[in-house]
Amino acid sequence: MKIAIIGGSFDPIHNGHLAMARHVLRHHLADQVWFMVSAQTPLKARRLTPFEIRVEMVKQAIAYDRKMKVCTLEAEREGLSYSVDSVRECQRRWPMHTFVWLIGNDQAMQLSAWKEIDALSEMIEFYVFPRNEEVIRCAYAHQKMRMELLDISSSEIRHGQKLWQLPKATACYIGATLCSFSKCS
Predict the structure, then answer these.
(1) pLDDT-based confidence at residue 43 (cuts at 50, 70, 90)
(2) Which CATH superfamily includes the segment(s) 2-181?
(3) Running DSSP on this structure, what letter comes out for residue 67?
(4) Helix or strand or coil: residue 126?
(5) Contacts of 54 (CB under 8 A, 6+ apart)
(6) pTM metric for this prediction
(7) What is the domain partition of the chain in residue ranges?
(8) Are 167 and 61 spatial neighbours (Cβ–Cβ below 8 Å)?
């Protein structure tokens, strides 16, 4: 089976993530999409929402599609969540599967900062998706995907912008979670 992995903090997951997953499944580029939620993201200096809440946000967003799964592999390891380590572990645990990695052009432009990117590029194929009008510039030979642009980022949603790009089920979960923290009844 061919598995497409979307890695990230998903703080929160948004419709851009789901659009990439749907595109890959609709065009038969993979049999399943796994959302690999990072425990500690190396390229982000800010404090993340607790891991369990981010996992639940993803679960709520993908509950409608049995070909989409949550992967919590990165929480099992201590330390920073490096993609190269995750891919090695996936290939060790599930040698019967082939894996590809889905990223947006924002990540493609910073691949040189990823741990062992040359080794990772040999181990797994990347599919790079546009997020905005920027031309995808990548020093590595990866598949450049074509799809409708969804110019959205999780940080915009955290700052109260483009909230319509939040999956409805995730928005309901966030609302219920915030309500329980503030003791709403």
Answers:
(1) low
(2) HUPs (3.40.50.620)
(3) T
(4) strand
(5) 9, 10, 11, 12, 13, 37, 48
(6) 0.89
(7) 2-181
(8) yes
